[in-house]
Amino acid sequence: MQKIQKILVFLCLLSAFLFAKELDVNRIKQGDFTELKAYLTQLKSISKQRDLNFNEYRTLTRFALVDGIDGVYNGGSNRGFASVYYSKLSPFLAKEFGDLFAEYGIPLGNDIEEIKPEYYLYNELVFWFNDSKQIFTTKKAYESFLFFKHNAAFATKIDEEGQEIRNCAYGDAGGGECEFIFKKPVKAKGILTFNADFSSPPNEVDACDYPAYFSTFKTQDSRLEFINDGHIVLDKREYYDKLAQLLPKWYKDGLGGSVGYEVEVEIVGIMPWSFSACAAGKYVTITNIKVEKKLQDNPNTRKDYENIESELNVYRLKLNSTDRYVNLREKPNGKILEQIPTAKSDAILLLNLNMSLWEVKGVSEWQRQLGFERAEFSGYKEVMGQEWIKVLYFPPSLSPKTQTITEAKIGYIHKSQLVMGDLP
User: Fold this and answer.
1) Phi and psi, residue 412, nearest 5°
2) Which of 52, 202, 228, 310 is the most buried (most CB within 10 A)?
3) What is the pLDDT of residue 255?
4) Secondary structure E strands in 109-230
5) What is the pLDDT of residue 64?
6) pTM for this model (two decimals)
7) Which of 260, 272, 271, 265 is nearest to 286 (CA)?
């Protein structure tokens, strides 16, 4: 035990010495790798005892084939050295230290002699989770890489020939997908936020399916940095039954805003949709969810709706009537809730809630968000085209910028009395 402790102390001192000392980059560029070999040999020795810390990792990345970083290759400003890097340095690094670089998914521009199966995993983790930088530039991201490196694996699927293959491939036009699963579910606490974003078109309307309704998960666990801001996949009826009763009425009525909950989940894996014509973020697969408490309840105010850029605001409605009033009804042809004065049309705000209640096989946006039904794109019911339009009505106000939904009303107006916004 004492011997191991002495070795670790020695390695720490050695590490401190290494990174206090600057390599002579000019000697490297002239093809003299003597000092570099000694330098990397010691770094390799450290890596056999433990994972490299972030500073040690960043030192190793200095020799990577990456543009735009402060490194030896430095492709962003020193193209003249590219030929030396490819012809001399890269082959040397691949032959002598290829496994060290491969352990951290660091590209060298040259094949290493021994390709271990786990190296493919490390490369894909770097590729899918580093914002196309080829290396990790923050400590949190690097710590998450180490956690995934030791605890994750490729998800598999059955191909057309009935063979089990890795679910990790690149498609046409820069598209592709790569799914990673944990060797056993990982418990994590965080904040699950349900969003209804009126600055986005409703599902099925835009060419790319960026839904106005989406959920995000965020945790303070640095090991799970790659999970942050992912969309939790709620694909079981039990999730819907648990969460639907917790959502406030305004959210179910189709209004914009956000609701956040403190939750504990068991994470199975993650699918980072980072490279596609219509990328939609990361999808986090779970096996269990426990809601601790509600943290936020933020329905949009009138100001929030009015701040949406006009070209994006497909929800905005205008009155279209020569009458003095347009009736806002409790339900189609139902009781009159209020008479909206047409003379004050510039002082009111009307929003089309049918847009947010676009139905697919009878299931509205917020229900699908909670996993009530995974409907196909075909077979939708166009609620937006119905005769009566469900609206959110903000009446004239002396202080429109501070007007909240407590001053607004939800009701129905016949579409003949409205000017509808153009769909994108």
Assistant:
1) -125, 140
2) 202
3) 92
4) 152-154, 156-158, 164-166, 168-170, 176-178, 180-196, 213-218
5) 78
6) 0.81
7) 265
Q: CA–CA distance from 37 to each of 91, 112, 165, 379 (Å)?
A: 13, 16, 39, 64
Cβ neighbours of residue 307 under 8 Å, at least 6 residues apart?
none
Cα torsion 410, 413, 419, 423: sign? positive
Alpha carbon distance 156, 173 (integer Å): 23
Maximum alpha-carbon separation in the chain: 93
- Map out the domains of the chain as residue ranges: 2-115, 153-299, 302-419
Non-local (6+) Cβ contacts of 97 within 8 A are 40, 44
CA dihedral (288, 291, 292, 297) positive or negative: positive
Name the residue among 185, 197, 281 with its Cα closest to residue 232.
281
Cα–Cα distance for residue pair 26/301, rounded to 1 Å: 61
Closest CA to 256 of 202, 320, 326: 202
Contacts for 303 with CB less than 8 Å, ≥ 6 apart: 400, 401, 402, 403
Q: Give the tens place of pLDDT for each residue, 344-394.
A: 999 999 998 876 665 555 677 888 888 876 544 444 455 545 789 999 999
Type of residue found at 297: D
Coil vs helix vs strand at 205: coil
Strand-pair category, 231-233 with 164-166: unpaired
* Residue 171 host element (H or E): none
DSSP string, 67-135: TTSSSSS-TTT-GGGHHHIIIIIHHHHHHHHHHHHHTTT---SS--S---HHHHHHHHHHHHHTTT-SS
pLDDT in tens, 83-105: 667 778 888 888 899 999 999 99
What separation in angstroms does the CA of 219 have from each of 147, 187, 188, 297? 15, 11, 7, 19
Sign of the four-CA dihedral 242, 243, 248, 252 = negative
Pick from 27, 55, 26, 23: which is nearest to 40 by CA?
Answer: 23
Instruction: Report residue 124 as tokens.
Output: 């894909």
Dihedral of alpha carbons 135, 138, 143, 148, sign? negative
Q: How far apart are CA 377 and CA 374, in angstroms?
A: 10
